[in-house]
Predict the structure.
Amino acid sequence: MTPPAHRMTTRPLGRTGLDVTVLGFGAGGIGNLGYARPDRDAAQAVDAAWAAGIRLFDTAPHYGLGLSERRLGEALRGRPRDEYVLSTKVGRLLRPHPAPTGSDLAAGGFDVPDDLVRVWDFTADGVRRSLEESLVRLGVDRVDIVYVHDPDHAVDDAIRSAVPALITLREQGVIGAVGVGMNQWQAPLRMVRETDLDVVMLAGRYTLLDRSGEQLLDECAGRGVAVVSAAPFNSGILARPWPPDGANYDYGAAPDEVLQHARHLARTCQAHGVPLPAAALQFPLRHPAVATVVAGMRSAEQVAAAVDGIRAYAPDSLWQAAGI
């Protein structure tokens, strides 16, 4: 028998009319990011998230060359569609690989066969085709939020073509909200100022360790644009109570000064009785623009740890001592 689901605090997602749980399920991990896990682990992770009350699920074609979308869709099948918020991304079409090597690890970072290849496409037609193909992989008839994914090299194209195409789909009622998702804050800031975005997914640039994106968040707060804070652990360094030697920081080895800063934060957290990962999860939610924090979860154990972290008591004295 499936245990009853717990309730989790929700917040409005800006002006979209959507409410999202303060913790969201990032589905990159179930796309075999870095290393492979079996289908059953992915299903158990989504089941655990649902039982814990998580109702925001985020994926992308990029994650595992479609594996994340397929696994997430399968795990959510049978859940009431109106009871959760689902987001995916556009900008990379998946096409047959003309010369597969056997693995996507080197090229894309996912431990899956590279029978497909990612093709950048920020045109209006590419956006529509990407969304149509994602719906098939997910096995749903709609998604709530669609992000333009990583247009670092094509910001002009995103502004000129991709975002207007998504706005048209929003106006037609095909999707609920239009966003951009990036690992930098400068391009999203320009896009917030120049287009009618509903939401920004900012990865790793407004965290306990890296607060460089604060200007973007302040701009979003002033314009009513919601922020989804992703990668709250900066890809690993904040995921344990004590950052170890060789800790991963933004997809590479942490420089010594970053590691020492993270350990200073860990000591501050310890002094206030709060685990470092819990503080990392809760910190972004202190900014008025942030509606939710999306953390990568690839197992039921990671889900349980994230849920415990988001619910842990963190006294005001912690944030004061951390200079927040």
Summary: Residues 155-171 form the longest helix (17 residues).
